[in-house]
Design a protein that fits this description.
The complex is a heterodimer of chains A (about 100) and B (about 550). By secondary structure, chain A is mainly alpha-helical. Chain A is built from three helices and two strands, in the order αββαα. In chain B, the strands form two sheets. A two-stranded antiparallel ribbon of chain B has the order 1-2. In chain B, strands 3-4 form a two-stranded antiparallel sheet. Classes of the chains: A mainly alpha (about 100), B mainly alpha (about 550).
Amino acid sequence: MSSARRSPMSFVVWGLVLLLVVLHQDNWFWDNGTLVFGFMPVALLYHACISIGAGITWFLATRFAWPEYLADDDLAHAEAARGTQGGTDNQRGTVA
Amino acid sequence: MTQLIIIAVYLSLLLGLGLFSNRLLKSTSSDYMLASHSIGPFLLLMSIFGTTMTAFALVGSTGEAFKEGVVVYGMLASSSGIIHSLCFFLIGVKLWSWGRKYHYRTQIQFFRDRVQSDKIGLLLFPILVGLIVPYLLIGVMASGGVINGVTQGRVVKEDGRVVVKNPTFEEGTFPAWLEHGEKGFADGSKGGVPRPIASLVICGVVLLYVFFGGMRGTAWANAFQTVVFMILGVVTFFVIATKLGTTALTPELGEEAAQSAGVWHQIQAISEHVPEEKLTRTHVSKLKFFTYMLVPFSVGMFPHLFQHWLTAKSANSFKLPVIAHPIFIMIVWVPCVLVGVWATSDLISIPPPIKANPNIVLPFMVKNLAGPLLGGFLTAGILAAIMSSLDSQFLCIGTIFTEDVVVHYGGKGRFSEKQVVTMARLFIVAVVIITYALSLYEPRRVFTLGVWCFSGFSALFPLICAAMYWRRLTKWGAYACVLAAIGSWIYLFVQSDFARNASYTVDFTIGGATYQTMPVASMVLSSVLAMVIVSLLTRPPDDATLSRFFPD
């Protein structure tokens, strides 16, 4: 269950997440009541763009920062499910 | 009455879905509680999104935008897009992996295992259930308010008397204690379905389909309801935009031309009527806005979300929810916030009782601006959002009771699968009865109550984070974290007059300037400090435990 070796892109991804957090605090639009396109308050539009930016960033995260060990886990669970179909219910580990 | 029929048909459909999924239910508690880890990406996205978007998202966001303006979106929607997906990515996927490996069904099982303490479960169980109750309360209160709101008659003054016109139910249909408020019928149910009855019916329907369908039924119902409320939410937005826009353009163009002016022009015309202060954030402190960002961390500790994560078929199933969640939030919240600020314009007259209770601003708009047929569908959409959270929470409290108390202390072989499921159901009913009883008291703002509930879970977030990423977390550090989190939550909740003070903040005065912060910031700071200090002062976890969770 070790973490994957980090690719340079994964640093970019985490940098983008940090950037989103910083950009979220948009002091620059605080008292700006401009209506963009005549209807959309600029503060609302800006934060809607933050949401879109978050979607893109998380897409990149799943592409470049996805832990590699999870692929092995998926394979192991799929094989376990095939081998013990219906019989895993009482196999819970002991709890301290 | 049309709205009521549509709502009844919708609720029947949900029951049918629960019954149908019951036919596919395997007779194991694993299938009942975790759908046998069979949920793929799409169903996982819809069920997780439906679960996190509760009454808070539709009813609460519109009401809060009505009160506070567009700031609401930045406070919780855009921040949630970043933080929720972060939690799914860093917490959810890894917990899923450990859950499959070590066969966890609940958070408490994980914490018992990770900090090597049985008693941590006894401490966490009442706290998690106690924090879910206000979350349930939001849904129960809002569902009653929404159904009552859209079935009410019109309150008018006639010959100096206040009367209710076109009620769904005439005065006297229900017992007076259900119909009358402080000043009588026109101040109570106003001819709509009384709030206590509406809430009771919603609780009953959700209980039934959860009982019939278990987690599989809940996931399907969530997916179905998420589609319903997203589509109908967008429809609601356009219906309200068209109606208000026509009102805005009529003086300039005449009614006929205003109606056919097109949605774009109509929306522009409405926005010109919104007061300036609702478009800016001048009334909100910047530090308060910043500290709001801690509230969405609550998803990392939601026990019902933990259970949803474990239903995933594979780690890859998480990718779609991680990516799409922020976009889905935007699709739901932007229209709701716009509708909320439009309600502050002079294009629609919001009566004082509605102004005093922002929870019913959205149902009021729907009732007054959509026809009865469309109003009924839109109401079903709002109820869908509410119920898609209630169901997961109901199922989760049953699961943690049976797994962490009954089976854990009673012994694994002592009860049959059927007995375990029955006990889960009985516990759920008991919690729902308590929640329902609480909902009958004076309603709080859905948004305020939601923020308090989420803040409590956020205060516990450092625990799950440290348990997964900090080797030095000790048993006593975990205890200190939980006690500091809940202690500070209780103290601040009492200080806020039990959420009656909706704008309560923790203020610091430095150099003559006062800085406002959200209570969640103090809670998180307390829990982090307690956890780190106590962990560093106590014996580290043993190597066997560390090697299970930190093999490198």
